[in-house]
C-alpha cells in the first residue's frame, strides 16, 4: 500500500519532532545512546491514527543518523554552490 503525500509528510514531521532536538542541541559526548533510550520511553502521537505509540531506541537511532546524513549532504551541497 502506497502512502499518500499527506501521510508521508505527517510521518516526516513526527520523525523530525523526535530527532530534531538532538540535531539542534546534541547531547554531551558519550550520552547519545542514553538519549535514544530516554526518547524510546516517551509516548508519541501516531501521525495518522492519533493513537499513542512508542518507538524503539534502534528506530530512533536510525531516524537520527538518516536525518543527520541528509543534513550533512545538504550542507556540503550548499557549501559547494557558494564557492562557485
Concise summary:
This protein is 68% helix and 5% strand.
Strand content: under 5%
Stretches where pLDDT is under 50 for at least 5 consecutive residues are none
What's the assembly state of these chains? single chain
Strand-and-helix sequence, N→C? HHEEH
Task: Describe the 3D structure.
It comes from Ralstonia psammae. This is Transposase. The chain is mainly α and 84 residues long. It has one domain. It has three helices and two strands. The chain has a two-stranded antiparallel ribbon. β1 and β2 form a beta hairpin. α1 crosses α3 and α2 packs across α3.
Relevant terms:
single chain, mainly alpha, two-stranded antiparallel ribbon, 2 strands
Write the topology of this structure.
Layout: H1 5-24, H2 32-41, E1 44-45, E2 52-53, H3 57-83
Helix pairs in contact: 1-3, 2-3
Amino acid at each position: 500500500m502506497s502512502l499518500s503525500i499527506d501521510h508521508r509528510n505527517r510521518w516526516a514531521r513526527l520523525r523530525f519532532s523526535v530527532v530534531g532536538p538532538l540535531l539542534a542541541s546534541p547531547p554531551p559526548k558519550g550520552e547519545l545512546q542514553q538519549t535514544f533510550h530516554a526518547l524510546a520511553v516517551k509516548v508519541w502521537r501516531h501521525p495518522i491514527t492519533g493513537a499513542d505509540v512508542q518507538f524503539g531506541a534502534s528506530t530512533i537511532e536510525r531516524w537520527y543518523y538518516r536525518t543527520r546524513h541528509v543534513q550533512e549532504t545538504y550542507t556540503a551541497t550548499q557549501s559547494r554552490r557558494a564557492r562557485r
